[in-house]
Structure formats: C-alpha cells, structure tokens
C-alpha cells in the first residue's frame, strides 16, 4: 500500500524539502502525477515535525508518517524513553497505540508488546515502521481495545492508556470521563487484565481533578522537556490504597532535574525577605503544587505564601532558574522612574496585581537584555521589584 510513496525518487523529493514552506510548495505542479500531491505534502510536513521530536524515525529510511497532527500529538522520544523505565515484565498492552513511539521504547523493556489502534490505516503504518525499525516483539491489532482485551483471554504485566479528549467537549474543563476511552468508568474492567496501569494525560488536566476521578493511584509523574510540561503519567496499582508520591522531571539538553515528594504530607515552609539569591522552580514543580516541600527539602525561604519564589543567603543547586539579586526596590512611581523606566529587561510576575504587558506599557520597559526583574509580593505583603542577574537557566 505504501509502494508509491516509498519510491526512491519520491523519498528523495520529501527529504530535499524538509522544512520548506508548504503553502508555497502546494502551489507548484505535482512532479509525481501518479501519487496524490496532498499525501506527499503531508509526508514532508510530518517528517519536518519529526526531525527534533522523533530523531530515530527521522533518520530511518522508508518510514511512513501519518497526518502532521498525529505527529504533533504523539509522545516525543524523550518522554517515551522516560515511560519505558517505569515498566517491566513479559507482556504490556497499549490500548491507544497511535503512532507507536511509546511502544517502541516499551519493547526494549518488555518481552511482548501489543499495539491496539482502532484506525486501520494508522495500524498498518505503525506495523510497517516497526519492520523498518527492526522491532520484532510488537504485535499490531487494528480493532477496538475493549474487544481485544475481552477476547484475549490473558493477563498483562502492564496496561498503558493515552486517552484522547472527545471532540464534543471543547471549552469544558478537562476531565478524564470526557476522554476516549473513559478510564474512570472502565477501571474495574481493566483491572481484570492487569494489576498495573500506566495512564498518560495532557498537562492541562488538574491533578486534584484526576485524583477525584481515579482510584488506586500510586504515583504521579510530571514530565517537562526544556521547561515545558508535556505530560502527566499516572501509575495505578490494583488494591493500592496508601500515600501518593509525586515526581517531577524536567528533561534538559545536557541534564535532568528531578524533584519528589509525598502528596498531602503536612509540610511547613519558612519565609523571609529577599536575601542574596532568588530561585524560581521549573515548570514541572510549578505544576505539582509542592511549594512548601521545595522550601523544606532545599532549606530555602519563600518570599510569600502565594509568590512561589524562594531565597537564600548561600547559593544552592536548584531545579529551576537561579538569580543573584542585585537590587530590591519598592513598587512605587519614584523608584520605577529612577531604576526601570525606559530600560530593557526580562520581566516575570509572581503574586502581583499587574500583568507583564501592563508593566511594560506603563513604564516603557523593552523586552530582552541581561537584566531580570521579578515583580512580586514579599512576606510583609509589600509589592516589590527584584532586579537580578541570571546564574542558571532551566
């Protein structure tokens, strides 16, 4: 079925146009009349998206890509690799297979992986690609995963699900019951086939909302890549009913930042006025809500209960951005005119009434430069500005 798109001359054309402006290319005459021009353009668009996100696929000859949107929505190799380290055993079934990125990495840790994908065309693409990638322990099924489970007559070491939001719930609060499959409704059914379930959700899902819908949650992983939260992972274990741990991971170019704590453990933060160094947690920690735990574990003070900025006299290693405070000024007309009006600065607001845009417009502050200004509220409830130099960028 892929013979035409896999012709060497078409593959060469696709590779030669990676990153090309497709709106202009689409206006050109199709140089391969035997093949749908839209399909060729889609291969170029999807492969362009895969260059950084899916380097293994991008660098392998003969790979077929689904729609560009499918590539945009799939796991990156970095997050798929992380997930693979959470599972072990002989058999794993993926109920929402998609483009198969996660299963490629699961196959390196699990003896047999079963890829379920209700879209027959996508299932064929994945099967073809696994052959090109020389993966032999993944079996592809083009059917509804509910039926596959019910008819399998077997149990699995792990069951993996990446539920997708239904199209008819746009604009509503993100809830798992509004996704397909409906995991909260099917959880007892799933536990008949595996005692261990791993669920991937979009970062838009509120953690407390997820916990209100799910039971037997053992651990929640918050995964960010280059300080951009990409996904939440929910480890669920049959009959588990104890404390829940939260682990945040920020995967950077040359390092990985981890932070872990127990949910609902009563921790009390310490507070102080700004000292020499300022710390801003990475986005995964911000998503976790473990703000008091940051203060306790790193032995640093918060500026205010709602500011989520931290300070210390002595610099420490920290999972986020680190700054040295050069100056502290009250947020007043006199001080702003003297120190920041008509200047260039990078602005961040935390627990502050005005937005970045309002501040820039009001004081004519241009974006950029080496000066970093934090507009926030201190422990005495005063509005302050911390003028800083950056030491570390998350």
Tell me what you see in this structure:
This protein has helices at 8-16, 22-25, 37-53, 55-58, 68-73, 77-84, 101-106, 120-132, 145-152, 183-191, 207-213, 283-288, 291-298, 333-339, 356-363, and strands at 89-94, 110-116, 138-141, 158-161, 164-165, 179-180, 196-201, 217-225, 228-237, 245-251, 256-262, 277-281, 301-302, 310-312, 320-330, 344-350, 366-377, 383-392. The chain has three domains: 8-72, Arc Repressor Mutant, subunit A (Orthogonal Bundle), CATH 1.10.10; 74-261, Vaccinia Virus protein VP39 (Rossmann fold); 277-392. It is globular. The mean pLDDT is 95. The chain has 394 residues and is an alpha/beta fold. Helices cover 30% and strands 29% of the residues. The strands form three sheets. A nine-stranded mixed β-sheet has the order 3-2-1-4-7-9-8-10-11, sandwiched between helices. Strands 13-14-12-15-18-17-16 form a seven-stranded mixed β-sheet. Strands 5-6 form a two-stranded antiparallel sheet.
Question: Distance N terminus to C terminus?
Answer: 45 Å
Shape: globular
Question: What is the CATH topology assignment of the largest domain?
Answer: Rossmann fold
CATH class assignment of the largest domain: Alpha Beta
- Oligomeric state of the chains in view: single chain
Number of strands: 18
CATH 2nd-level architecture of the largest domain: 3-Layer(aba) Sandwich
Radius of gyration using CA atoms only: 25 Å
State the helicity in percent bands.
25-40%
Q: How many DSSP H or I helices?
A: 15
Strand content: 25-35%
Give the mean pLDDT.
95
Q: What is the domain total for the residues?
A: 3
Class of secondary structure makeup: alpha/beta
Low-confidence stretches: none
Q: State the fourth-level CATH superfamily of the largest domain.
A: Vaccinia Virus protein VP39
Strand order of the largest sheet: 3-2-1-4-7-9-8-10-11
Describe the sheet with the most strands: 9 strands, mixed
Domain PG-1098 ferredoxin-like: 277-319
Domain THUMP-like: 320-390
């Amino acid at each position: 079925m892929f013979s035409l798109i896999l012709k060497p001359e078409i593959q060469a054309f696709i590779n030669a146009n990676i990153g090309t402006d497709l709106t202009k290319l689409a206006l050109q005459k199709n140089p391969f009349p035997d093949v749908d021009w839209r399909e060729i353009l889609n291969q170029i668009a999807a492969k362009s998206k895969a260059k950084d996100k899916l380097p293994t696929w991008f660098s392998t000859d003969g790979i077929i890509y689904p729609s560009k949107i499918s590539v945009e929505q799939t796991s990156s190799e970095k997050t798929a690799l992380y997930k693979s380290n959470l599972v072990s055993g002989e058999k794993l079934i993926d109920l929402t297979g998609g483009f198969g990125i996660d299963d490629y990495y699961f196959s390196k840790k699990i003896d047999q992986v079963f890829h379920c994908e209700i879209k027959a065309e996508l299932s064929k693409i994945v099967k073809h690609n696994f052959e090109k990638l020389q993966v032999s322990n993944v079996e592809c099924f083009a059917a509804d995963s509910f039926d596959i489970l019910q008819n399998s007559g077997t149990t699995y070491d792990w069951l993996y699900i990446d539920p997708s939001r239904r199209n008819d719930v746009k604009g509503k609060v993100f809830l798992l019951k509004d996704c397909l499959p409906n995991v909260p409704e099917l959880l007892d059914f799933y536990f008949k086939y595996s005692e261990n379930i791993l669920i991937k959700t979009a970062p838009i899902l509120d953690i407390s909302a997820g916990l209100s819908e799910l039971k037997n949650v053992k651990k929640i992983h918050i995964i960010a890549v280059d300080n951009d939260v990409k996904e939440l992972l929910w480890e669920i274990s049959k009959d588990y009913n104890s404390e829940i741990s939260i682990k945040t991971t920020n995967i950077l170019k040359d390092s990985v930042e981890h932070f872990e704590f127990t949910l609902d453990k009563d921790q009390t933060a310490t507070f102080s006025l700004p000292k020499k160094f300022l710390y801003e947690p990475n986005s995964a920690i911000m998503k976790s809500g473990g703000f008091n735990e940051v203060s306790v574990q790193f032995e640093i003070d918060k500026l205010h209960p709602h500011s989520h900025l931290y300070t210390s006299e002595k610099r420490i290693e920290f999972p986020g951005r680190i700054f040295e405070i050069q100056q502290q000024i009250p947020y007043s007309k006199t001080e702003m005119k003297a120190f920041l009006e008509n200047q260039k600065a990078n602005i961040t607001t935390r627990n502050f009434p005005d937005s970045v845009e309002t501040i820039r417009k009001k004081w004519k502050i241009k974006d950029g430069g080496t000066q970093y200004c934090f507009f926030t509220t201190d422990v005495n409830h005063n509005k302050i500005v911390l003028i800083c130099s950056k030491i570390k960028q998350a």
